[in-house]
Amino acid sequence: MTKFLTSVALAAGLMAAGSANAYVVFSGVDNNGNAGAQVAPTNSSAAETNFKNNLVGVGTENFETRAGGAPLALDFGAAGVATLNGAGSVATNTAGNTNGAGRYSVPGGTRYWEVNAGGGNPFQVDFSASLAAFGFYGIDLGDFGGTLTLELSKGGVVVGSQVVTTAAQNVADGSVLYFGLIASNAAEEFDRVRFLSTVGSGDVFAFDSFTIGTKEQIRQLPEPASLALVAGSLLGLGLVRRRRA
Hints:
The radius of gyration is 21 Å and the shape is globular. The chain has helices at about 1-20, 40-50, 225-245; strands at about 25-30, 60, 70-75, 80-85, 90, 110-115, 125-130, 135-140, 150-155, 155-165, 175-180, 190-195, 205-215. It has one domain: Jelly Rolls. About 40% of the residues are buried. The strands form two sheets. Strands 1, 2, 5, 6, 8, 11 and 13 form a seven-stranded antiparallel β-sheet that branches. Strands 3-4-7-12-9-10 form a six-stranded antiparallel β-sheet, with no helix packed on it. By secondary structure, it is α+β, with helices and mostly antiparallel strands.
């Protein structure tokens, strides 16, 4: 019986560790490879839907009523103010077309935030509140190769980082991705997100339709299914053994 209790405790500990030490990530990519044509955001849109299904009462900024450059402060109501910093600015494309270099608004629309990931003045978003959720569309990311990483910090201290899955370089022109993350505990909350690229000159892309949320705007996230099954099986086995004893 002691071994059984130890096993259940270990499984429970693994469940807690699995849910407490990692952001929950939502990601989808639509390959393209043509800088002059848009691609249907099938996979990226599905990732956005899955991300938002875990949130309630959040806002999304699509830049359709915006103009000008950084810094750009955006009011998200209960989630506070998000300020876009770096050398970015609002850019446009004609409906149904790209800007000629693979960048365009998603989903639909004709305005987006054009900015550089990495380089000498990397893109970052600063928040007035402590956040637990962040999601965005990235268009034309990865055509310079390299790796894109989101660095998350709070009060100037880095609390985590996430590598963003992008299209392979040969199909990255005009590609669309959606990337969302949700903190699984208070230690993972953040008030700044920096976009860092291993490409020395950076990677110019379209940033659009981004969503933020506080911990109060997150629905309860499920435990990792595999660990829950392990714990449940061990519990059932222990009950059977106790009855036999």
